Amino acid sequence: MNIFLVTSPFQYICANEARLHYKTKNNTLVIVEQDVERGKKNMEYILDKTVWDEIISIPRSQRTLRIPRVINKIKNKNEKIERLILSEYHGWRSNLFMANFPSAELIYIDDGSATLIEYEELIVTKKPYQRKRLLNDILIRFQKIKPATYIPFNKNLEIFTIFNLKKNHCRITKNNMKGLRKNLLTENSFNIESPIGFIGEANVDAGKDCIKLSDYLKEINKILDNTTKDIVYFPHRMETKKIRDQIESINRIKYHNSTMPLELEISKSNLSLSKLIGYSSTALYTLSIIYNEIPLEIITSNNLSQFSTPNLTNNHIAKQLK
């Protein structure tokens, strides 16, 4: 049996690519449910129930009770667990599975830009997982589950990733999103005569460490000034109505209401683009792989604070895009 643990639509996309790449059989997918409506709809849209032997969905709440139930359900089948395929390398859920299926081969899939940070700070340094909470651990033991109090670095760890990671202590296998590209026929999404796609940024007008809305609008207008083409604007899921109203008021902007993850949206909406433009982000990097026929342009801006977490994340992605 192979166990896949995912907590987001993007993780699911990567898990499905891993299923195809490793040609796994007897696959159990454990999904931690989304807690926002858009995330729920995205997961519902991309989830293909026909390719999984079993799907177990669990809410995000009461995890001290719900995750052990899932582990016990799997244990009670008395089947050999060949692989644990999961993300969130130092996440509690992941490590509880690792603690209870120690002989399984461990494959770490991407969790967006968090993968880059975890790789540099936790995997390269071989940092063990440590977490002790007396009452929670007692409750977990009461359910006949071993708590994840200390998990050493796994010497047999393999990473299945879209990113270009330097080989260090573990095997690294490249995820080129071949399954998704084949299914979507993404080569049909490029046309030199088509509009330009702009990937909306999350960190706009949300505090002192974010891009000012006025600067954001200037960047978009600068692009329009340098081309005769229209822009198809793909909003970030966190975008506010205030930002949307400003964007929609700009001439030659086509505001696109996405109904699914952007990785699928372009192809499924039968859009063709001549270029993709955006700030460095996980979405932009992923699109550069899935739609690699479409030229890419990264906005380099001084408008992001040098002390902000978003900028740190963007810098990690920017290095990958070079």
UniProtKB/TrEMBL annotation:
UniProt GO molecular function: transferase activity
Keyword annotations: Transferase
Full protein name: Glycosyltransferase 52 family protein
Native species: Aliivibrio finisterrensis
